[in-house]
Amino acid sequence: MQAAPILQAQAQAQLWQKESWGVHVGQNVQYLKKEAKYPPRYPSKNVLSPHAFAKVGLAMISQFFVLSQRGDNIVFRDYRGEVPKGSAEIFFRKVKFWKEDGEGDAPPVFNLDGVNYFHVKVVGLLFVATTRINASPSLVLELLQRIARVIKDYLGVLNEDSLRKNFVLVYELLDEVIDFGYVQTTSTEVLKSYVFNEPIVVDAARLPPLGPASIFVQGNKRMPGTAVTKSVVGNEPGGRNREEIFVDIIEKISVTFSSSGYILTSEIDGTIQMKSYLTGNPEIRLALNEDLSIGRGGRSIYDYSSSSGGGTVILDDCNFHESVHLDNFDSDRTLVLVPPEGEFPVMNYRMTQEFKPPFRINALIEEAGPLKAEVILKVRAEFASSITANTVMVQMPLPTFTTRVSFELEPGAVGNTTDFKEATKRLEWGLKKIVGGSEHTLRARLTFSQESHGNIVKESGPVSMTFTIPMYNASKLQVKYLQIAKKSNTYNPYRWSEYEYPHPSNASQDNCSYNVHSGMLKVINIAL
């Protein structure tokens, strides 16, 4: 059944090897970015299952380690003894100074002294693999993501504290996932038969804020933070398992504006994420928009007047988890699946049709003398006043001859931070939260070490902005209802919900309430 994906992955790996990995690292990274940007189009299901992923047998790695933001070695496993023991320190030193050398952030894959380093960053931790062979970059990076997901499933929460407290369990997982550098399985469900250590629960009070994902509510009750950070093998006090399931819609937006405010490019990369604590493998039915269209059909885009209103949702392409059955997807846009335990993406999708961006940014630069200039930044929230954006950060590169910057915030501004990074010549403006419909302004006065000669605009920008917005859906993709097949008349999964779409009346008795969280963390650029 998995023959086609396996053959495809093998052919892909051969392609990577033909690219002379040791020489053309830069080109391979570009190919990798292109591959990640254009996922397979529906109805193809080219996502390898954990078993097929292991059977490919092409991700032979020498070492695996996890580093903290300070470079501390939290987890280290040497599988083959082919790479020097000090590789973790070498890797961190290279990554740390990569940006200071003026080359930007370190790429996910690079070669140093004959050793190929692969890394992904997950919640501030660096998951790294090393090898001397021409391994497929996409396969190894996918392996690192799956290892992080498996560890999170077992520990409940993934951070430095939980890794240190559960290092015995983590090493047991690594020994089962990888044997002598070869992948065995990345399935949480399969690993439960071979891993016997119990996780040590990290005190919820010591956890950092979880952001929008921790604000699950039902009525006027607030859901305990541990409910979405518990282990798949953990039990409630008294030895009982609580039947729960969570669904999140997470979207990452990228929009580029011209200096006059027109949209040049726009794109949404989204995923429907599910985390299941259901026992007995019940069948789940997930209904999406009935007017959902896959592929470019030249149809008009939907009305902008409502952030959750009607209109056709047009996706460029999408792919699905291997457990999803698409028998009824063409007729009623319903996904049927038996979810594996733990967290997994039900569906990934991409949309490049025009949509209304959540923010508008205006930037104005004016000379205020031979050695001075003034920058005015305005940010306006284009969403409803009932929605709030969190952790907003606006950044703007300044001319290289900038020596000093003074800031002026609007009266009554609360929770704002401003900074001038002299080493990188970058202006940073942080806003704790932005309420929909509001507008915020920052004035920055620049002092130069030499005359600009009219090059201020050319050497400034583009302005970038990162943010997170819970309860906001730019693509208008909706989960209409989530239906769980009952095992008995008394079966009633525990209900938590943050954002509920209307439930159809004919399925209301069988529905399990669910959480739909739309968050975005992406960049908006302005050409000045």
TrEMBL record:
Lineage: superkingdom: Eukaryota
- Localization of this protein: Endomembrane system
Please provide the Gene Ontology terms (biological process) for this protein: protein transport
Q: Which Pfam families match?
A: Adap_comp_sub, Clat_adaptor_s
* Coiled-coil residue spans: none
Extent of the signal sequence: none
Q: Indicate the segments forming the MHD domain, all copies.
A: 242-509
Q: What GO cellular component is one of the record's annotations?
A: endomembrane system
Q: Which UniProt keywords apply?
A: Membrane, Protein transport, Transport
Query: What's the protein here called?
Result: AP-4 complex subunit mu
Q: Which organism is it from?
A: Cucurbita argyrosperma subsp. sororia
